[in-house]
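Annex B. Sample input.
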Amino acid sequence: MARSAFLSWLAAGLDGSRPAPRRGHPARRGGATLVLGAASGYGPRQVKAFVASLRSVHDGPAAILTDRPEALGPLLERFSVDCLLPAVPPGYAPHPGSARFLDALQAIEALYQDAGTILLSDVRDVVFQADPFAPPPAGVEFTIEAEPRTLAEHGANLRWIAALAGAGVARSVAGAPCVCSGTILGPRDDMLRLIRQMMLLMAVPRSAVPAAFGADQAAVNLIAHWRLLGGAAVLPNHGRIATIGMTDPAALSLDPGGLIRGPGGRVSAIVHQYDRHPVLQASVEARWEVAAEPELPMARPPRGPLASVAKRVPELR
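Annex B, continued. Sample output.
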């Protein structure tokens, strides 16, 4: 049987032989909640709205995994957010979109033993408008991202599921709504269970294809719709979380204080994908003084012939 590089990498994280992420500066907060984001390749301008808006509504522990601690460390310290440095041992590593979940699992278990409720979140396109943990979730909360579209109507996601688990499996969930993997929260034990399920599902396909293959998105949709996680709920969009990338711009508005309002005037605690709407993006960046931060180019995935080949050749598994 061929040795699987991905599964060997995953096992090293689960059995403790792969080092856990470490803090780039002393812990900034203690408490029973945790906001945990990943900012691979990002500079301060891509992170400022996330941390500044979070601290305007919530004072609990928060951390960001980054591969650019020199660039982000001072900003994170200013907003009392932990700067986490993932372990990068020599040898095989999957795409950061997959690796961040193992980093998150290890960080939660090693550094945040008191965190009873956890929010895993994208960073670059997320802004906070109210306390994300009020009221506390009873179980893991998955949020629909593009109502009333089904996965079949949201073609990219169905293709990702087919790549993850086959065309037949994709057809079996084609009529279900599309759940977003970018913002998920729930009780600690359930969130750790969710991450382990995701990592095992992501062991099936190749994960080296940046952006072109949403393994995390596919895994989350299968977990949600197969009900692999007891007590988890699939919730409508524009509740606690609003994922607005595909929301009709006519249904979105700004109130006088700069809050983003969804359909019916609803103000969600967490707004995801606001940058798909230029007017909202400009408002968010002005409100949180994004332009005051140093402008550093975002790190881009490798390009050229070798990168092109990597997109078409399955990873060693």
